[in-house]
Amino acid sequence: MAKRPGNRRDSKHRVLRRGESIRADGKYQFKYHVNGKPHFVYSWRLESTDKLPSGKKPCLSLRELEKQIGYDLDTQMDPVGKNITVVELVERYLRTKTGVRDSTRAGYRTVQRTLEKEPFGGKKISQVKVSDAKLFLIKLQSDGKGYSSIHSIRGVLRPAFQMAVDDDVLHKNPFGFELATVIVNYSVTREAITKEQMRKFLKFIHDDNVYCKYYEVAYILFHTGMRISEFCGLTLKDIDLENRIINIDHQLLRTSEMKYVIEATKTNAGTRKLPMTEDVFRCFQAIIEDREKPRFEKMVDGHTGFLFTDKDGMPLVAMHWEHRFNHMVKRYNDIYRVQIPNITPHVCRHTYCSNMAKSGMNPKTLQYLMGHSDIGVTLNTYTHLGLEDAADELKRMEELAYARKELEKVKGENPVSQKMFRAI
Question: Is residue 266 annotated as a catalytic residue, yes or no?
């Protein structure tokens, strides 16, 4: 019968507990099992009061680590899952995101690539504190990342860490704070151009020998507020000239892999029917009349008959029009001393929204025309109205009040006053 060994001790003659041992290099080791698989933790100190050996990095003692592991096991927490990196956690989270749009999937890949380049991505999720999360986002901004990019990255990290909390891997989500409390939104709001600037720009396009062929497109974008992806997705059957209605129920996109895809509108409210004004009707009429029928119509996800195509017969996408607008603005500013700001298809949309707001259009009507799912987005347009707009509105109200008084005089009616009422 083999002799049973006595209690194992360290160099200080302290009795080592079950699972504890000392390696040849003097480092303490604790072995434990999760679901039948062995796992290890290490430390240069057995107790928290032990002195750290010279030249070694500060670390928790072995007994402190054992306490953490024991607590995690007692509370059903997964001590192994806590050791995965931020990148691994995000990858696991994104595997749960099925059925998302191609544009959303492309955004996810961008976030993953960013995290893979950052030291924060290799950090163990159990070591990420709230301050670490905040400092990471601050670093991204100091490195030149825009507010919207940081917003997207945080938009993946926050639910990924929440998944770890829901899976009982972590106790707290370190990204559970409001982004606005950490970084400053330095992004420049796409301001609408003035009516005068719009008028001059459209006249320039109309009269220019090179860019006149884009006049109808620019006019439509300035006077319908369509998203450029919605405009690119329009086909012949979406333009009802008889009833003068534009049917918007999809958008055309091109992925980073140069794949053309048809997706639903950005929001459910984006699916809408836009009435045409007389000018917009004539623009669409001209576009359809001038459209050269290709040898064969390219089909994208069951849609054919796109209004504009490239030399290969493929429909034009947002990037094409953004480049064309850039060239037109540059050409304008090369000719005229009074410069105009940068104008993009989205600036056209914002300008339309602002013009309708200034004209006094009902906000709910404007919300429908813009395809905004939230009235708050539409109402934010009104916040761009300045002192001049406020003065014009007050003047308009004053003129309206004066007109009412004159009308009352003509009709011989006396205005209602408090003296006309008698207490009973």
Answer: yes
